[in-house]
Amino acid sequence: MAIPDKRIRVLVIDDSALMRKLLVEFLSQDRSIEVVGTAPDPLVARDKIKLLSPDVLTLDVEMPRMDGLTFLENLMRLRPMPVVMVSSLTERGADVTFQALELGAVDFVTKPKIDLEAGVRQYAADLIAKIKSASTARVRTINNGSRPAAAASAPSRRVFRTTDRIIAIGASTGGTEAIKEVLQAMPADAPAILITQHIPAMFSAPFAARMDRSSAMSVCEARDGQQIVPGHVYIAPGDWHLSLARDGARYVCRLDQSAPENRHRPSVDVLFKSVAKFAGSNALGAVLTGMGDDGARGLLAMRNAGARTLVQDEASCVVWGMPGAAHRLGAAEQVCPLPHIASQLLDWSAA
After folding, report:
1. Residue 261 forms beta bridges with which residues?
2. Does 172 qualify as catalytic in the annotation?
3. 315 & 191 share domain
4. Which of 16, 30, 100, 282 sees the fewest Cβ atoms within 10 Å?
5. Residue of 30, 55, 107, 294 with catalytic role
6. pLDDT at position 283, please?
7. Is residue 252 domain-shared with residue 115, that is, in the same domain?
8. Which keywords label this protein (predicted)?
9. What is the domain extent for residue 95?
């Protein structure tokens, strides 16, 4: 097989010599990737970036001499470029990772706790896919301005038609920050929102807690059988599918660990298809930034069931994979810039 004309140039930054060796070994097996160098800390990395001009960095979250967040903040201010974080599966690791995504990192993978070689071998394919996606991603620069209050952009005059309205949102790469922007613009009494974001199991609870601090709505990690009520947001736990179901006159959350769909658990398609079935024309659906095509067929099912549907526009996405796939399928009646998505959903909800 011919080697691509232009390979993705990757610089690996990790304080562990074994981790650097393993990452170089596994990444180099993909013909579209060239590991142009490694660095044991951000200070060495800074010089190598100038010398080697990589396309993508892999960056360990916890680094010596200069912490990864300080390095990332400086990088995004002075030389913005795609970064995939390598995060530890700990509460602190999750918190630092979400801070890194806020600063402009494109995506992250989780570092194995034990048996490093077997762990890296297991997630190598995921890392390679994320590096390829990152190489074409739109890198966000740091916004040093203050954010508006949680419900500032949501007019208080809206009167919602019914408590039965359900908003379903799906996202992947770049989604944690996109979801945050949407939720910050929602008023406390907005219709109930169900969210599937592709995320590892250890990260979904910290993500939900982070969103709860950012939104006027009450945000939680969904529980099986939990009643769905207005003013609340329910986020799919990592490694569990989230579905909408009815229990008598009430909507409830259903969680299950059936086979991954579109290679994902949780899967956006699983959520959207259940919303199409049980909420029909009372539902609103949105696909935000993300790699792949999960959610496209589910959003089409929602639209066919009478739901209002939209996708995030390409210009405001980190990766226009999922929204683009839904758009090409005819699943979205509207394409919206990220800053307008919340207001569009609220307008539809009030109709």
Report:
1. 264
2. yes
3. yes
4. 16
5. 294
6. 98
7. no
8. Chemotaxis, Cytoplasm, Hydrolase, Phosphoprotein
9. 8-135
Q: Which positions of the chain have pLDDT values less than 50?
A: 1-3, 144-157, 159-163
Active-site hit among 87, 88, 172, 215: 172
* β-bridge pairing 8-13 and 56-60: parallel
Q: Read off the amino acid at residue 268.
A: V
> Residue written as tokens 């620069």?
141
**Catalytic site residue 294?**
yes
β-pairing verdict for 107-111 and 83-88: parallel
Kindly name the residue from 198, 232, 241, 264 that is annotated as catalytic: 198
Residue 152 token pair = 């500032």
Q: What is the DSSP letter of 187?
A: -
Q: Is 198 a catalytic residue?
A: yes
Do residues 205 and 328 both lie within one domain?
A: yes
Query: pLDDT tens, 247-274?
Result: 998 999 999 999 999 999 999 999 999 9
Q: What are the helix (H) ranges across 79-195? A: 91-103, 116-135, 175-184
Cα separation of the two ends of the chain = 55
pLDDT in tens, 66-122: 788 899 999 999 999 999 998 877 777 788 899 999 999 999 998 877 777 887 888
Q: Residue 295: count other Cβ atoms within 10 Å of its Cβ.
A: 35
